[in-house]
Amino acid sequence: MLEGNGFVVAAYVVMWVGVLGYAVRLHRVSRDAKHRLAQASRVDARRHI
Amino acid sequence: MSTARGRRRSALAVAAVILLGAFGFLLYGGIDSNVVFFLTPQELLERGTAAYDVPVRLGGQVQPGSVKWDPEKLDLRFVVTDTGGEAVTVHSTGAPPQMFRDGMGVVVEGRYHRDGVFQSTGLMVKHSNEYRKPEHGDRPQEMYKSLTKGAGS
Amino acid sequence: MSHAVPLETESPPAAVGVTRPIEWLGLVALLALVGAQLLGVLTSPPDRDMGHLQKIMYVHVPAAWNSFIAFFVVAICSLLYLWKGQERHDLLAASAAEVGTVFTALTLALGSIWGRPTWGVWWTWDPRLTSTAVLLLIFVGYLALRSFVEDADRRAQWSAAVGLLGALNVPIVYMSVKWWRTLHQMQSSPSTVDPEYVVGLRANGIAVLLVLVYFIMKRYRAARVERLAEQLEERAALEGRDHA
Fold first, then answer.
1. Per-residue model confidence as pLDDT tens digits over C89-126
2. How far is B101 from chain A (nearest CA, A)?
3. Number of domains in chain B
């Protein structure tokens, strides 16, 4: 048996860090986009009343 | 305004096609035979004196029974062969990758010296595309075939 | 008022907040990924050469496959944009490109972790690795380009061109192991892989595909909202200039 189990663990950790890290980023991007739109809508509504 | 935008768009499409074509030609037609990641022993020896003392990669199969490993001095000697029967002796220091063994495909970085020994500065083991349960017998010949595909004859 | 930019999008701001079905897909994808990894790790025997290192195949290969799928989406959407000029194709291409970039980076990192104990090196400039690195760089450039160009039309056009160029790399990366001598092995197939490993690999491929679809849809939704906000901001800026 090769002494490779550390590499296997590292690979699965990297995979999950990548997937969950990007999921968290997406969550933030969505939230920021909604805030930005809400802000822009408020400005726009004030202008058009 | 929309027609101007449309014209700009089709101009861009044409530019993209030309770029793609050029890029495709470069990669499919232009480079193919010149890019060689490693030389086989036969190709190395065919170079004659031009092969000496220049950094190259040598790829082939570790000749079964040729491995001499001195664990005290971390000194490794083995012979790399190809299907044509050409063989080059390789000298390497330091522990080899753990997958290194008789019959395995290898790619060795280093220089071929006038004394006929290839001095390794880096040793890589090539794995085949096979994933087998342990019961199966080793099939180094097939690994070797996949290693030297495209080798000039 | 004649300077007002008409908002092209069909969904009003209020409707954008509805995200429930997507989050369900995310949950299913997450569970599928956990399940597929457990299946792969627990049911397959160690490989005769590599031992447990073979288990890295279940994350490296699906990441690679799915990055290819993402870039295929980029290619189709970029072509559609150049043909029809519709904003949604541009935004979908951008979303797929970002997700594809993440999976390509993962492919390289995971391959490197496998290569160190198997080949003996973390990295070497063989054609498969080099072409994959080029693919990654082109799409990092694509994303940088998008963040630098402020004019939406120009951003979409340039992105479509770069996206096509980048996606053209995918068949080159795929074929590199057949066209050139490489350290990387050729594509495995069911004839070179024992069935014990094939099941786990397919399950993981499908699970990562679900993750990919979730990521792209979620990113696309955010991109639509961003674009809508951008249009409102542009309109406000234009009117502000008129009033001054």
1. 999 999 999 999 999 999 999 999 999 999 999 999 88
2. 13
3. 2
